[in-house]
């Protein structure tokens, strides 16, 4: 196993870079971070729509969330593989396709995190904000969302972990990331799939476990700060 | 439209496989997950620690990596199984860790006074679990458990990557023959949505049914 690491460690970590595109574990992290960053604003919008009292806002957002939470990511990735080039009208790289698919998929899950965060802010906050003359959207932007964000932080880190795990599926359309790197190594070594996949598992585990510990620490810190 | 209708019998076979995989995994993960969750919450240290390590390890891995690992590793350990059972093994291992955490969360929400009261009237550990803890924990167990069931149905789409003809692979085979990806993917999304929407309706009914414990 160590000899595989010695020989292909670089491929596992950064893929074919600098001769080719950035890949490997770095590719996974870039893909996840970019997807999460793009999905977040979308999710805040969806979350606000989900908590709206007006049906014309609430229903489309609810439909979006329910449809996407019930569809396998693999299906969305395959679908995006065909749909994104059609919509854009030109050739699109697998990386962009994967980002689109994961953003669409994760926006539904993140929207639920945002909704829970918004609903955890006490009602009085909204009422007080409205009574000082802020409009509904101003109250959201200046009063509710900032408060909700703090309580959402641990869930956001946890969501980052699930995005990292979700990006492993992007290998099916050939996005350079760590699972693809493992498949490439596997087809070069040929005879020792077990060791190759153990290395892959260890890499994912280290990344995800560190992040979820971080989320736990954040949560403890926040509860301690909030307790009087 | 014609493509969709003509492909239905073929997709039906795939759907059956998807449902079969999901059902086996849900049952296995339910039994295993609850045992692990109880061990995690009430077991002595030598029981709780290995379960904690198992759960953290499994939950830190993408399902795809787990499926590939099991798929390649089982034959090397001398166990010869079909890809179908390898995939089910991986899915069950993955979901049982999640069910264990759901169980832990649910049973730990029961105040210690309940356990003490159970002990005081002379109930054994098993009796305390069955008559005192589980009925009260059920309300907190159901909603997140249904979420794991939904994610099992979604996760079962990954078995197509090790060559099992489930709904996902059936759809792709139809696309490979007809070259009409869009209608097929829409149909596929609809089928998956229908399954999971039905599940969330069941969950809502169950939650209403077991909402008798008030806080």
Rounded Rg of chain B: 20 Å
By DSSP (H or I, 4+ residues per run), the number of helices of chain A equals: 9
Main interface: chain pair and counts: A-B, 33 and 38 residues
CATH architecture of chain A: Orthogonal Bundle
User: What's the β-strand tally of chain B?
Assistant: 0
CATH architecture of chain B: Orthogonal Bundle
| Structural class by sheet pairing and helices of chain B | mainly alpha
CATH level-4 homologous superfamily of chain A: MetI-like
* Overall body shape of chain B: flat
Basic shape of chain A: globular
Kindly describe this structure.
With 228 residues, chain A is an all-alpha fold. Chain A has one domain (2-226): Orthogonal Bundle (MetI-like fold). Helix content of chain A is 81%, strand content 0%. Chain A has helices at residues 2-14, 24-50, 55-69, 73-88, 94-120, 123-131, 136-166, 178-189, 193-226. In chain A, α4 packs across α5 (94-120), α6 (123-131) runs antiparallel to α7 and α8 (178-189) packs antiparallel against α9. Chain B is mainly alpha-helical and 215 residues long. Chain B has a single domain (2-209), classed as Orthogonal Bundle (MetI-like fold), CATH 1.10.3720.10. Chain B has eight helices and no strands. Chain B has helices at residues 2-42, 45-59, 63-76, 83-108, 112-120, 125-155, 167-178, 181-209. The mean pLDDT of chain B is 90. Chains A and B meet through α3, α4, α7 and α9 of A and α2, α3, α6, α7 and α8 of B.
Considering the chains and any ligands shown, give keywords for the structure.
heterodimer; A: 228 residues; mainly alpha; MetI-like fold; 81% helix; globular; B: 215 residues
What's this, in brief?
The complex is a heterodimer of chains A (228) and B (215). Chain A has 228 residues and is mostly helical. Chain A has helices at residues 2-14, 24-50, 55-69, 73-88, 94-120, 123-131, 136-166, 178-189, 193-226.
Topology:
The complex is a heterodimer of chains A (228) and B (215).
Chain A: H1 2-14, H2 24-50, H3 55-69, H4 73-88, H5 94-120, H6 123-131, H7 136-166, H8 178-189, H9 193-226
Chain B: H1 2-42, H2 45-59, H3 63-76, H4 83-108, H5 112-120, H6 125-155, H7 167-178, H8 181-209
Helix pairs in contact in B: 1-2, 1-4, 1-6, 1-7, 2-4, 3-4, 4-6, 5-6, 6-8, 7-8
């Amino acid at each position: 196993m160590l000899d595989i690491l010695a020989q292909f460690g670089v491929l596992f970590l950064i893929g074919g870079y600098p001769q080719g595109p950035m890949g490997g574990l770095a590719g996974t992290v870039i893909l996840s971070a970019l997807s999460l960053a793009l999905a977040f604003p979308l999710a805040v919008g969806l979350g606000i729509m989900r908590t709206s009292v007006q049906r014309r806002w609430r229903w489309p957002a609810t439909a979006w969330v329910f449809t996407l939470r019930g569809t396998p990511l693999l299906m969305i990735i395959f679908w995006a593989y065909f749909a994104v080039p059609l919509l854009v009208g030109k050739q699109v790289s697998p990386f962009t396709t994967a980002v689109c698919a994961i953003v669409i998929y994760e926006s539904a899950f993140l929207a639920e995190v945002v909704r829970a965060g918004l609903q955890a802010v006490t009602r009085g906050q909204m009422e007080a904000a409205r009574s000082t003359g802020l409009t509904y959207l101003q109250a959201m932007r200046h009063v509710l969302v900032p408060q909700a964000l703090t309580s959402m932080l641990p869930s956001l880190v946890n969501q980052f972990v699930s995005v990292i795990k979700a990006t492993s599926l992007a290998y099916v359309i050939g996005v350079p990331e760590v699972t693809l790197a493992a498949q490439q190594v596997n087809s070069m070594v040929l005879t020792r799939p077990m060791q190759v996949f153990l290395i892959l598992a260890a890499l994912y585990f280290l990344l995800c476990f560190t992040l979820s510990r971080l989320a736990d620490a954040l949560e403890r810190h926040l509860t301690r700060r909030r307790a009087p | 439209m014609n493509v969709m209708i003509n492909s239905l019998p073929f997709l039906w076979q795939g759907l059956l496989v998807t449902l079969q995989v999901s059902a086996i995994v849900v049952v296995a993960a339910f039994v295993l997950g609850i045992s692990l969750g109880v061990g995690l919450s009430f077991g002595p240290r030598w029981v709780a620690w290995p379960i904690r390590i198992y759960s953290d390890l499994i939950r830190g891995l993408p399902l795809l990596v787990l499926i590939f690992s099991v798929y390649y590793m089982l034959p090397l350990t001398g166990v010869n199984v079909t890809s179908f059972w390898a995939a089910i093994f991986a899915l069950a291992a993955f979901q049982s860790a999640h069910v264990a955490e759901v169980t832990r969360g649910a049973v730990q929400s029961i105040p210690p006074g309940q356990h003490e009261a159970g002990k005081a009237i002379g109930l054994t550990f098993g009796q305390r679990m069955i008559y005192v803890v589980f009925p009260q924990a059920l309300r907190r167990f159901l909603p997140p458990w249904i979420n794991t069931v939904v994610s099992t149905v979604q996760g079962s789409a990954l078995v197509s990557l090790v060559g099992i003809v489930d709904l996902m692979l059936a759809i792709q085979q139809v696309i490979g023959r007809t070259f009409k990806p869009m209608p097929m993917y829409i149909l596929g999304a609809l089928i998956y949505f229908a399954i999971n929407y039905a599940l969330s309706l069941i969950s809502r009914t169950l939650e209403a049914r077991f909402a008798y414990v008030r806080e």
